[in-house]
Design goal:
The complex is a heterodimer of chains A (111) and B (112). With 111 residues, chain A is mostly beta strands. Helices cover 0% and strands 58% of the residues of chain A. Classes of the chains: A mainly beta (111), B mainly beta (112). Chains A and B meet through strand 4, strand 5 and strand 9 of A and strand 5, strand 9 and strand 10 of B.
Amino acid sequence: SQQGEEDPQALSIQEGENATMNCSYKTSINNLQWYRQNSGRGLVHLILIRSNEREKHSGRLRVTLDTSKKSSSLLITASRAADTASYFCATDVQGAQKLVFGQGTRLTINP
Amino acid sequence: EAQVTQNPRYLITVTGKKLTVTCSQNMNHEYMSWYRQDPGLGLRQIYYSMNVEVTDKGDVPEGYKVSRKEKRNFPLILESPSPNQTSLYFCASSLSSGDTQYFGPGTRLTVL
């Protein structure tokens, strides 16, 4: 199964609400990253959190990392229609020479 | 402007006709990677390169070749494309394997 698995697979909320997406992984990591993808376009990096960090903020984004549970969450506050996209977590697995991407959460913000 | 470029953006071809998708980055990144994205399967790594003349297989390398003769370029070669290689392809680069990756705009390939 996937190293990084996002949950839920799809999420639909009203504009202004908060959106929370989760990512679980299986092995030890150096860091975990979140990316955003608008339909059919290239992924865009949002935030990177290192294994020794627990929480990180960037604008309306808040990422948490719990290495004991091997999980991370991405919170988008005060969502906007423009936040509609797919969101992927990617793990920098210790000893591997690559990022491993999950299958993503498709987020829809309804106006 | 820092960017990763890919060409072509769209390509329709026929089975067996060799093709190359180019990828170039202007950020002096050492690490470059190719992915394919298919519905329900997420992003899967095809090949990666840690530096010039250093390439290695990713998770789904069958049917693909790459080369890294210069730091900025990392072309993806399909010697004999087949319909199961119809997909959306992304090139990405980063300072090292675990750093922030910068993605190209994607190449949508259809093999008939």
